[in-house]
UniProtKB/TrEMBL annotation:
<feature type="domain" description="VWFA">
    <location>
        <begin position="125"/>
        <end position="296"/>
    </location>
</feature>
<dbReference type="InterPro" id="IPR036465">
    <property type="entry name" value="vWFA_dom_sf"/>
</dbReference>
<protein>
    <submittedName>
        <fullName>VWA domain-containing protein</fullName>
    </submittedName>
</protein>
<feature type="region of interest" description="Disordered">
    <location>
        <begin position="48"/>
        <end position="70"/>
    </location>
</feature>
<dbReference type="InterPro" id="IPR002035">
    <property type="entry name" value="VWF_A"/>
</dbReference>
<dbReference type="InterPro" id="IPR017802">
    <property type="entry name" value="VWFA-rel_acidobac-type"/>
</dbReference>
<dbReference type="Pfam" id="PF13519">
    <property type="entry name" value="VWA_2"/>
</dbReference>
Length: 348
């Protein structure tokens, strides 16, 4: 028969004994596994381990030979010699529309296989070397107009800079795409002093290293020879032969040169420009400046570019001559070829 009164003393003592043993068991467990006491707290600050990154697959060398271990990456581009070519007729008009088969290309005596051919209007890095010496006093306004017109032939992807020179060269306008910026700098150009033409070419060539476009060209506007530079004629000629920069010049030469430097001016500019594949335009009047500058700008946009891989693998740093010949279509008059005369082989 069930009763609802207090448990007997024996029952109470038995329950206390069970509770005591259970407490002892829990204490022994906590002492043996102390980490369990912190388990709940650690769950409040979960540290997610990043998933292991997959091992990258090796490049597929079958699709790109330049990635093979026994070849140097980018070597293909280094070995490709590019030759910009301008074609004109007897009236100095540009000739366009020729095809790859109309050209023969030689390095030394060996005919080269033309691997690259284009006549697209590629972006250009342009620089103007602008004479502001004292002898330019009566020509300076027309010369400034010529610079602006030359840059107006530029495309949106082109960039250009301006170097002025008299007693010493000065970077008048750094690389920009704004004709207005250059025009604003020209306002303060005042003709005075002597002529440091060679030093100015050196500064322009050095600045061209900052150009972002693979095609590069300089335009020199001057009225005489050099009578102030620290660099010599030989040093500058070597410099322009080494660099892949086309150089054009507009020479405003007086009919009766007063000094030896002025008499040698046309020859100096011709030797510097022709080796790069450019040209020197001699004019008699400042009024011709803007038209000639525009013509040069258009010419730079209508060149053929021939590319080949040299057969001579020797890295001897020597000068290698280049010659471009034409096989013109029937019915055309005599045509004239302007291209760079050579390049220096690599040394490593």
């Amino acid at each position: 028969m069930l009763t609802s009164g207090p448990l007997p003393l024996v029952a109470r003592e038995g329950r206390a004994l069970v509770r005591g043993r259970l407490l002892v068991f829990i204490l022994l467990v906590l002492i043996a596994c102390p980490g369990l006491i912190w388990a709940q707290g650690e769950e409040q600050n979960v540290h997610v381990k990043p998933l292991p990154q997959p091992t990258p697959k090796p490049p597929d060398v079958s699709s790109d030979p330049s990635l093979k271990t026994h070849t140097r990456p980018m070597k293909v581009d280094v070995d490709l010699v590019l030759v910009p070519v301008t074609i004109t007729d007897d009236w100095n008009r540009l000739v366009t529309g020729l095809e790859r088969d109309n050209f023969l290309l030689y390095e030394g005596k060996d005919q080269m296989d033309i691997r690259h051919f284009s006549n697209e209007d590629a972006p250009i890095s342009l620089g103007v070397i602008f004479d502001v010496s004292g002898s330019m006093s009566n020509k300076i306004d027309k010369a400034k107009e010529a610079v602006v017109e030359f840059f107006k032939t530029a495309n949106p992807q082109d960039e250009f800079f301006l170097v002025s020179f008299s007693e010493r060269p000065e970077l008048l306008a750094d690389f920009t795409r704004s004709v207005e910026d250059v025009q604003g700098r020209l306002v303060y150009a005042v003709p005075k002093g002597r002529t440091s033409l060679l030093d100015a070419i050196y500064l322009g060539m050095n600045k061209m290293r900052d150009g972002h476009n693979s095609k590069k060209a300089l335009l020199i506007i001057s009225d005489g020879g050099d009578n102030r530079s620290r660099y010599t004629e030989g040093e500058i000629k070597s410099l322009v032969k080494e660099a892949d920069v086309q150089i054009y010049a507009i020479g405003i030469f007086d009919a009766f040169a007063a000094t030896q430097e002025e008499r040698l001016g046309p020859e100096l500019l011709s030797e510097i420009t022709e080796v790069t594949g450019g040209r020197t335009f001699s004019i008699d009047s400042p009024s011709e400046l803007t038209d000639v500058a525009t013509k040069i700008g258009i010419e730079l946009r209508n060149q053929y570019v021939l590319g080949y891989r040299p057969k001579n693998p020797t890295k001897d740093g020597k000068w290698r001559k280049i010659k471009v010949k034409l096989l013109p279509p029937k019915g055309l008059p005599q045509l004239h070829v302007y291209s760079k005369m050579g390049y220096y082989a690599p040394t490593e």
